[in-house]
Each structure stands twice: as C-alpha cells, then as structure tokens.
From TrEMBL:
Transmembrane segments: none annotated. Pfam families: Band_7, Band_7_C. It comes from the Bacteria. InterPro entries: Band7/mec-2_domain, Band_7, Band_7/SPFH_dom_sf, STML2-like_C, Stomatin_HflK_fam. It is a single-pass membrane protein. Coiled coil: none annotated. This is Paraslipin. It comes from Aquitalea aquatica.
C-alpha cells in the first residue's frame, strides 16, 4: 500500500515537472543538462523532468524602468540633478538570458552614463530647451548597445532636471527681468502708437480744415464772380433798354415833327422843359446859374428848334 502511494506521488511530481504552461506575452528559457535547449512560447509545453530546467522567465511586455537620479555637470560647469524613466521590451529572450548577467542593470547604467555625456556637451539653458533631443540621443545609444542584450529600448523621458537653488534663484530673477522688459517694451509701443495716432489725427484734421477753407474761398470767389457777371449783364441790359427807349422816343419825336403842328408842339415842349429846369435849379441850390440871355426865352427856344430842324434834315 505504501509503495502505491509513493508511486502515485512520483507520478504526480513527474507530471508537474513535465507540463509547463507559459502565459501570453511571456517566454521561458529551457536548459538541458546545463545548456540552452529551447525557448518556450505561450501555451502548453512538455519538459523532461530532472533533465530540462527552466532557467529564465521573461515578460515580453513593455516595461517602464525608473532610472535613479544622478548629478550631471553641464558645459558651463553647472551641476544638475537628473532622473528619468526608461521604456524597454525584451525582444530576444535567449540573448536577454545569456547576453549579459543583468540586462536591467546594464541598460540603467548605460542610460546614466549616456545622459551625463550628453548633458556635459550642453550649456545650462540648452538642457532645458532641448530635452527631446537629449531623450532621443539616450534612446539611440541604448538601442544600439541593447541589441546584444535582447532588449529593445523604446523611449527615454527625463522626469526632473533640477539645478542648484542659487541657479534657480538666478533663473527666476532672469525670467522676472525678461517679463518686466517685455512689459515695458509693450507699454512703450502702446504709447508710441498712441502718439502716432494722435499726430495722424491732428494732421488729418488740419488737412481737412485747410481743404474746407480752400473750398470755401473758391466757392466765395466763384459766387462773387458770378454776382459781378450778373450785375454787369444786368447793367448792360439796362443800358441797352434805356438806349432802345431813348432811340424809340427820339424816333417818335422826329416822326411827330413831320406831321402838321409838330414843330409847334416841339417848340412848346422845349419851352416847358426850359422853364421847369430853371425852376428845379432854384429849389435845389442857393446859388442859381442863369444864362446871359435868360430874359430872351424865345431866342433860346428858337435855337433849340433850329437844332431839331437840322437833326430832322
């Protein structure tokens, strides 16, 4: 009975030692009698108990590896405390098992030395501006060396990049000064634009005012010119009308003289106007100018009639 139990336990142990189930995204390295034999893939696998041995177990998932902080010295002799995080993946389980004794320690140390080398070639300001470039250089250096370790370095990210406190204070003061400088420049630009706008407004107003005054002067002169023309035309028209009326009156007088009794009527009219003229002079002036033969009205009328007769001929 005891033998049966021992035999059953031996069979159970044999089965347990023979059957290996590998999870998804994992790879197991099997050694047979101390030498590499096979890489077990996900699923059910059969081993020879006590001859085959699971030497290494690898996860094929992407692994984040925290790289410890370290002190780096920049090109301008400034100390920086830098740490980061490295993302890698085992791509060749056999090389990961036999390429290095500890690929985690290898890629960690290599990332730190590469980071120190890269930062040592840069000045302090550049390290803050070119973090992406630093990350790419570290990844390229690690990926080239990690091929022999069966590892693929996917990316590296700098978590913290901390300068000493005095440098931080200086940088903060510099940033404050730069912001104040930009603020003053912006304010001066605003004042400048304000003055320019005011000057342009005043210039435009002066131009508009002078143009308005010029147009008003032109309009006034045109108005005066047109008024003078109208006045001259009116006076000319009046003179023509007076001349026409005078000519018409003279013509009618001449025609009247030709009819019977016309000369006598003219004689009477001249005599009346003569007397009326002297009467008018006596009303308007204290001094009355009299002709030498004022008493001889008939001779004056005769003289006037002789002029009329000569004109009639």
């Amino acid at each position: 009975m005891e033998f049966v139990i021992i035999l059953f336990l031996a069979v159970v142990v044999f089965i347990i030692k023979s059957v290996k189930v590998v999870p998804q995204q994992h790879a197991y390295i099997v050694e047979r009698l101390g030498r590499y034999h096979a890489t077990l893939t996900p699923g059910l696998n059969i081993l020879i108990p006590f001859i085959d041995r699971l030497a290494y177990k690898h996860s094929l998932k992407e692994v984040p590896l925290d790289v410890p902080s370290q002190i780096c010295i920049t090109r301008d002799n400034t100390q920086l405390k830098v740490d980061g995080i490295l993302y890698f993946q085992v791509t060749d389980p056999q090389r990961a098992s036999y390429g290095t004794s500890d690929y985690l320690l290898a890629i960690t140390q290599l990332s730190q030395t590469t980071l120190r080398s890269v930062i040592g070639k840069m000045e302090l300001d550049k390290t803050f501006e070119e973090r992406d470039e630093i990350n790419q250089i570290v990844v390229a250096s690690l990926d080239e060396a990690a091929i022999n370790w069966g590892v693929k370095v996917l990316r590296y990210e700098i978590k913290d990049l901390v300068p000493p406190q005095d440098i931080l204070h200086s940088m903060q003061a510099q940033i404050t000064a730069e912001r104040e400088k930009r603020a003053r420049i912006a304010q001066s630009e605003g004042v400048k634009m304000e003055q320019i706008n005011l000057a342009n407004g005043a210039r435009e107003a002066a131009i508009q005012k002078s143009q308005g005054e010029m147009q008003a002067t032109i309009n006034n002169s045109e108005g005066n010119k047109q008024a003078a023309i109208n006045k001259a035309q009116g006076e000319a028209e009046a003179l023509r009308l007076v001349a026409d009326a005078t000519a018409d009156a003279v013509r009618r007088v001449a025609e009247s003289i030709k009819v019977d009794g016309g000369i006598e009527a003219v004689n009477l009219k001249v005599a009346e106007q003569y007397v009326a003229a002297f009467a008018q002079l006596a009303k308007q002036n204290n001094t009355v100018i009299l002709p030498a033969n004022v008493a001889d009205v008939s001779s004056l009328v005769a003289t006037a009639l002789s002029v009329v007769k000569q004109s009639n001929r």
